[in-house]
Specification:
The model has no long low-confidence stretch (mean pLDDT 96). The chain has one domain: HIT-like (HIT family, subunit A), CATH 3.30.428.10. It has a five-stranded antiparallel β-sheet. The chain is globular. It starts with 8 loop residues before the first helix and ends with a helix. The longest helix is centred in the middle third of the chain and has 21 residues. By secondary structure, it is of the alpha+beta class. The protein is built from three helices and five strands.
């Protein structure tokens, strides 16, 4: 497995070099709106600690992160009145990973509605901002 590369896009977001719609932040993790969502409310949850993926993550950091993933999955389901939630996590290129900083996808799901492809087309910033506002409101309640 390759070493962690701190020039990845999520490391740049964590350092504030690239803007993002942050929905949640604590000492150990952040959650941001996915700019190429597979459905409304698609979030990415990532640790602040550098790790390439699940395979090299510090188990203590991972334990804290999964608690945040769970909290945000509940919030996403509520904020978007979803029928369910999918949580995805990919490791290494053969496993589907394209950004090499550990992250979880949290996607609200609706009966009969398939996921959109991760096409490379960016969502409009106002759509992402509106989704982020919905989630922040649920988290603040």
């Amino acid at each position: 497995m390759a070493d962690y590369d701190d020039s990845n896009i999520f490391a740049k977001i964590l350092r504030g070099e690239i803007p993002s719609q942050r929905v949640y932040e604590d000492d150990d993790a952040i959650a941001i709106m996915d700019v190429m969502p597979q459905g409304p409310g698609h979030l990415l949850v990532l640790p602040k600690a550098p790790s390439r993926n699940l395979l090299d993550a510090d188990p203590l950091a991972l334990a804290k992160l999964i608690a945040v993933v769970q909290r945000l999955a509940v919030a996403v389901k509520t904020a978007f009145a979803a029928d369910g939630v999918s949580v995805f996590q990919f490791n290494e290129p053969a496993g589907g990973q394209t950004v090499f900083h550990l992250h979880f996808h949290v996607v609200p799901r609706f009966d009969g509605v398939p996921l959109r492809p991760h096409s490379g087309t960016m969502e409009k910033s106002e759509v992402l901002a509106a989704g982020a506002d919905k989630l922040r409101a649920v988290l603040a309640a």
